[in-house]
Amino acid sequence: MTTRINPHRLVQASPADLKHPSNNIKRIVLSTAQIAVEAHPAKWLRTPSKPKSRVLVIAHSDRGALDDHALQTIAAAAILADAETAVLALILGELNDDLSSAAADEVMILPALDFQIFQPDIELASVLAIIELLKPKHIFLPDNLIGDGDLGRRLAALKKLSVATHVLEIDVQHVASAQSGGCVLAQSNLPEVILLAPNAVDAELPFTAKATRIDAPTINHAASPYQAHYQDMGLQTSAAEDIALEDADFIVSAGNGVQNLATLASLASSLNAAVGASRVVVDDGKFPRDKQIGATGKTVTASTYMAIGISGAVQHLQGIKDCRHVIAINKDASAPIVKRANLSVIGDAEAVMQALMIEIEKAKEVVA
Ligand SMILES: Cc1cc2nc3c(=O)[nH]c(=O)nc-3n(C[C@H](O)[C@H](O)[C@H](O)COP(=O)(O)OP(=O)(O)OC[C@H]3O[C@@H](n4cnc5c(N)ncnc54)[C@H](O)[C@@H]3O)c2cc1C
After folding, report:
1. Domain that holds residue 309
2. In this structure, which of 28, 109, 137, 187 has its CB flanked by the most CB atoms within 10 Å?
3. 307: which residues sit within 8 A by CB, 6+ positions away?
4. 332 alpha carbon – ligand 1 mean position (Å)
């Protein structure tokens, strides 16, 4: 019998192979391998050396990262930009990520404009100052509910710029948006402000960019004609059990592999996380139906989803497709949830939960 070789497996290449001038990862030394490399050619670099104009992409970050919608918006701008146009990503809030694979040529960060602080006038004044300085040809924003959609509309209204909202289709000449409740696709020329709908563009691009950090100009808010008319009274945190699963930011979810529900409840409480469940445990009567996550349960969008003793059946995965970070705790390394997870702990659910709680307590003591 011949052993089958997985053509999509990671290949191993030595540093010498990587330095080879004709390197398209064709010369592979399997025995002395030191570095793992994906078996596909490198992406080309798009950044123009002497850009004559700019397009601006504005997006809020969330705890130092951009979500898929923001990355798709940068990708849309990069796809449309010609060889003499640079894509500048203006990030409102902190940014820890490198945006070269997102294909931003330049990156400017305004960390004080965190989306959790409601300050639309200050955001508008800052963005207008940058627009007046850089004079971009087009301004792209993700049409979302965390402030970018609102900012784009305010910007267009104040400066009387042409605008298209909830853009589903885009090319260098035109945009199209759904009208009349989605029955009609309305088209227009490429406007100055483009508010992109989610998933209109694939963020996976065949090219990268330099993502050069550039300093933000000093903005004198006291002299700005756009003074704050709002006072942010701050965020009020609710206990995890009072939050609907659809709104929860951190979910600890139980599957058939969880023996001790009390341990799971303690873990969720120490993480201030909401509790969810797979259908099997709901059917077993261990949780009420409104805790079920999946195709026939709830769709959740938590930033962290911890699946404990959950196999990751396709119906369950459907309910967590928009979760940003999935952590799997499972004794079976080949369970489908492990493929979906960003981090997996292979081991017995009870032992891992107990160990985790000890670490959480230690971490809390350090913080206190
Ligand atoms: C029409 C239809 C709709 C459905 N809708 C949904 C839905 O909305 N939501 C949903 O969740 N399911 C749904 N299902 C059911 C789905 O197909 C699966 O049967 C279900 O998700 C499995 O739940 P589970 O992963 O908790 O259990 P199991 O499939 O029994 O998996 C248990 C997992 O726990 C692991 N495990 C076992 N013991 C331990 C241990 N001691 N420590 C660590 N890990 C351990 C195992 O390795 C396994 O991966 C639907 C099915 C159908 C047909």
Report:
1. 242-367
2. 109
3. 253, 255, 316, 320, 326, 327, 328, 329, 330, 337, 341
4. 13
